[in-house]
């Protein structure tokens, strides 16, 4: 009797060892998947054909969704670029990394700002790089650049695991394109108009003999107004030079950059990167500068949509996605590449160009947009394609977050999720592969900058009957 038990015991042990062995020889061993992670700046969930848009044409993105899974309850961790991107790269709420501000504007608006994603934060790119991945960021960074001097690049993408960088360290400000106005509202802080009117009225009244003002006072007010106006004008002329810089790794390619053909150039860079690295595992984060204001599109796409330059820009983004998919196909990388497409937050509904053209996107049935915690500010498209691994044509309405990509990418790259810190993302593979029907995420917290605004509850069990 005893010996049979023992035998059974060792048999079980053997089986267990075999299973462990099997799980070690996971598909990524020796044949790690590549990652192409695409984020379109300020794209609204309602701008894509596969999410219900009838007038914009996004055939390439729609095809991605058809060949993969479409998340219909995908939530950005913040409704603004800087914090949302910090969360995406680290799998953590931006409040944990300090990238949630207590005041407006809540994003970096100067390259010269000394803040950035802290070096102690771990991005998926850093971990993938340690696993032998070639890593690149093409496009927008918006997570800081320097600490102490104008070129120490202490927050440069390369310090966070991106071996190659071609793109803009800040964001595509209105100021980056001539004729698109400015985001810096100096008039809010200095009353140019009021001061001008007071001065003119005073001079007028003085001349009419109604009041008497010392000439010196008028002269000093007048010179203050002139000096401040000249300084402000100088600053505005300089802003594109400080802020609109296109870099390749650490060198300046253009300052200020010309945006017209930027999506085309970035697309070529992305395709080149894929071609250069087709023989090894790579991770490409393609972070579109579009469709953020100042909206632009290259000549081939201008006038192609019914929705002005904004729609043209969406068309160009879709073309770009098509080029990248075509490169994967051509290089035989389709099956072994996990592709993701999302937006960093909802569309910016208030955007009107300097000439009065409406440049907002569409968040579908969701209320409000970027920089709010209404659903339209945070519900974003989420498309994942990995042929053979992720069943195609599926729509998943379970709550998911852009932070979920972190644990997923990290584990698929062969690394382990850091245990010395809180990670807020949940691996989505089981959900995507239909191993589970429900996401195990019970809560999602919604911050407006550093302030907790709302909590989304996804009950894990149905209510006990007594709770009625
Ligand atoms: C953009 O590309 C077009 C076509 O190649 C070219 O004619 C145009 O000059 C380019 N624009 C800029 C600003 O480089
Ligand atoms: C498609 O997108 C455009 C541009 O954002 C928007 O104006 C339009 O209402 C959308 N159409 C539908 C049917 O969702």
UniProtKB/TrEMBL annotation:
Its cofactor is Ca(2+). Pfam families: Sulfatase. Keywords: Calcium, Hydrolase, Membrane, Metal-binding, Signal, Transmembrane, Transmembrane helix. The keyword Coiled coil does not apply. PANTHER family: ARYLSULFATASE FAMILY MEMBER, STERYL-SULFATASE. The chain crosses the membrane at residues 189-205, 217-242. The keyword Hydrolase applies. Belongs to the sulfatase family. The gene is STS. It comes from Amphiprion ocellaris. Residues 33-414 form the Sulfatase N-terminal domain. Residues 1-27 form the signal peptide. PROSITE patterns: SULFATASE_1, SULFATASE_2. This is Sulfatase N-terminal domain-containing protein. GO terms for molecular function: arylsulfatase activity; metal ion binding.
